[in-house]
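Run SDR family NAD(P)-dependent oxidoreductase through structure prediction, thanks.
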Amino acid sequence: MHISLSGKRVLVTGGTRGIGAAITRAFAQAGASVLTCSRTGGEAADALARELKATPGDHHFVTADVSRTEDVQRLVDACQERLGGLDVVVNNAGRITHVPIEDLGMDGWREILDTNLTAAYDIVHRAVALLGPGASVINVGSGSALAGIHHRAHYTAAKAGLIGLTRSLAKELGPRGVRVNVLSPGVIQTEAELSEEVRTRYQKMTALGRLGTPEELAHVVLFLASDLASYMTGATVSVDGGI
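Sure, done. The structure for SDR family NAD(P)-dependent oxidoreductase is below.
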């Protein structure tokens, strides 16, 4: 089934690499106008900008670090100025480090919490005035939120917090007709290289016997953004191959 999102105005954070780039492309190809961002420019951002320019629609790229309040405000202002409002927000930007708890200082803790959790709050907080009835907020979480992962206490805490934030926002914004859901990916094969040992281990853990692709996640994001999911809010949707 082809999902058309023609006329929708979309913000995707962290949209120039991996999962974010696939989501950005999918929205543009579905007919939406997309504004995306990354912390820095660079080759990946330039390549995506060229691709979006060749795709019909009103598409934009902004350099913004979503862990910085001033950058979030500038990002939301750009959505107002260039798109005239928002119908969909995808909070995809995230960071991860692998640090034993005895070595995890407050700076490292705050860096991951600010990017993976606080940024989602800040964007919705500042963009809520741009969201009308029928709008959809999709927070990209992680299957690790409930499982936990060795040396990633800060990351899993942030992703678990994202579930709680989503549930509360769903109840608060529901009367306005705004839906809020979490996409919970499993292990996805992006441009980041995995060793053959790691890839094989994760493949064996999934019911489907393989890793997922960014495009497979993007398809579910389109569904959650569309009217096909009009009665879904506060949900955590796992896309993990049955891990």
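The radius of gyration is 17 Å.
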